[in-house]
Amino acid sequence: MAEQFYTILTTVGKTKIANAAALGQKVELTELALGDGGGSYYNPTEDQTSLRNEVWRGAIGTVTVDEENPTWITIQTVVPSQHGGFMIREAGVFDTEGDLIAIGKYPETYKPVAADGSIKDLVVRMILEVSNTASVVLKVDPTVILATQQQVNEAEARTKAYTDQEIGEVSQALDAHKADNTIHKTSNVIRTETNTQLKVEVVSSSGSETPEQGRIIFDMSRGKFFGGNGSEWL
Fold first, then answer.
1. Cα–Cα distance, 109 to 90 (Å, whole number)
2. What is the three-class DSSP state of 83?
3. Which terminus of the chain has a smaller tally of CB atoms within 10 A, N or C?
4. Contact 56/83 with Cβ under 8 angstroms?
5. What is the secondary structure of 50-72 as a DSSP string?
6. pLDDT tens digits, residue range 48-97?
């Protein structure tokens, strides 16, 4: 006979959700635990307050209401690649007070570790059916961030692509700025060479020469260039 897999609310879970709905409060879900069932499958019951043999526990990543089934709540978490070496056959959801709200029979899955020659992130999802989904919320720990390795890789790829694009645009802007400056400088040189006629006269001494404005001479006795401003040599 094939195994049947399911998730049920525990007695405590039903009571808490019913009270929360009646009083306008909420049940805050915080953790999802996994177990190996003590080495074999078993059928979870409503009166359970813990897993039969817990092997891992972590923060819940997301709690969402199913778009097509408004009474279904999907709970998801990620078991990081560095955790493993155990079999999974049961799963349970806990609230802020540490009470087991729901428990599920999980398809047998082995979570490997590096020593097994293979590692992987494991995404675990549980679906709860409740009459009032507004009474169930996720209590988020802001210090905990859950992501699969694939999500991390995709985020890194998007970041690199964005950075490369920004650097490329900055480089293009700098190249255009340099080219613009080169054109201006070249233009200035052309105007200088075109509009200015420079004439240097060589004399034995500048003392007897008239210091005309704009006149430049080379004084051989002093070995220097001098320019006239109209009244004296500079």
1. 10
2. coil
3. N
4. yes
5. S-SSEEEEEE--EEEE-SS-TTE
6. 999 999 999 999 988 888 888 888 888 889 998 889 999 999 999 999 99
